Amino acid sequence: LLGGYIVWVSFALIWLSLVAGGAYSWYYRDLKYKPEANMYNYLTWTAYGLWILSFVVFFLICCFRHAIKVGIAVFQTTAQYVKANLKIFALPAISYVVIAIWSAGWLWGMLYIFSVGYPEPRDDGMPFLTIMRWDDKTHAIFFYDVFGLFWINAFIIGVCQFIIGASACIWYFDVAGDTQGEGTVGKALKWAFRYHLGSIAFGSFLIAVCQMMRFLFEYYRKKIGTANQDNKVVKVLTCLTRYLLWLMDKCAKFISKTAYIRIALQNTWFFKSAWNGFALVIKNAHRFGAAASIGN
Question: Is residue 181 within 8 Å of residue 81, measured between CB atoms?
């Protein structure tokens, strides 16, 4: 109940801050500057902009008040779930520790790969320093190792996401029973390692492919960047490609996380779960947006 009041009070404070900011800009304009001053006009438009923004916020709150109520209900339900399964707080910490141990081992192995090759003088004006030149086979091993880093990291995070999603699904259906939804983390852990490791591995593979594409793009961009550093068209295309690759990576992560939750809920294969989850989000975008905003 208190969480609902906090959310509505937060929205009210945001709206009042915008209105008060516009009023203060208008008052400060009349107090400090004359009408012919440039700052007078700047503060006038600032006041108008804040008031217009406050109207937009008020309009959105009125239009999406039902979605906000759903978001508040989700927020309150999440609090009940966390209260019954406090062990869930340990999962992110454990996953970060596992990732740190794996990354340290990966870095140790990468040092051996970096040492492979033959030394040559540098060709950038400092011939007294040397670099290690690789052949094509060593380059292939390097990229293979980097892809393994991305895949295993995404897999560890995916297992954590699946356990949290499955635990919440189990709690939702068991909260009215004798257990009152307690102890669902252990059951979700069993589901993950007994039934759904393949789906999690495939979802993390898709994420790793997107991340590898971004890595290869940045790798070769730095290799050839100096040759076209003054070409504005190349700069624009480079920025656009970088943004699209970043967007693709974010979409892959979002779809995979949604698929993990649908897998835990319906016990379906990855592609079907990803499509059902994506369709559900699209049909209820305003509700999911409100819930995500309140949660954040």
Answer: yes
* Contact by Cβ (8 Å): 284, 71: no
Using DSSP's 3-state secondary structure scheme, residue 16 falls into helix
Q: How many Å apart are CA 223 and CA 217, to the nearest integer?
A: 10
Helices and strands in the chain: count of H runs, count of E runs? 10, 2
Average pLDDT of the residues of the chain = 85
Residue that the structure tokens 């900011």 belong to: 21
What is the 3-state composition of the chain as percent helix, strand, coil, each rounded to the nearest 5? Answer: 85, 5, 15
Burial class (CB in 10 A: 0-12, 13-18, 19+), 22: buried
Six token digits for residue 33: 């500057």
Q: Point out which residues pair with 133 in neighbouring strands.
A: 118
CB 165 within 8 A of CB 264: yes
Distance CA 207, CA 255 (A): 10
CA dihedral 78, 79, 81, 84 (to 10 degrees): 170
- Between the alpha carbon of residue 179 and those of residues 79, 170, 291, the distances in Å are 17, 11, 27
Secondary element (H or E) of residue 108: helix 90-114
What's this model's pTM, rounded to 2 decimal places? Answer: 0.77
pLDDT in tens, 106-123: 999 888 888 777 777 766
**DSSP of 31-93:** HH--TTSHHHHHHHHHHHHHHHHHHHHHHHHHHTHHHHHHHHHHHHHHHHHHHH-GGGGHHHH
3-state DSSP call for residue 175? coil
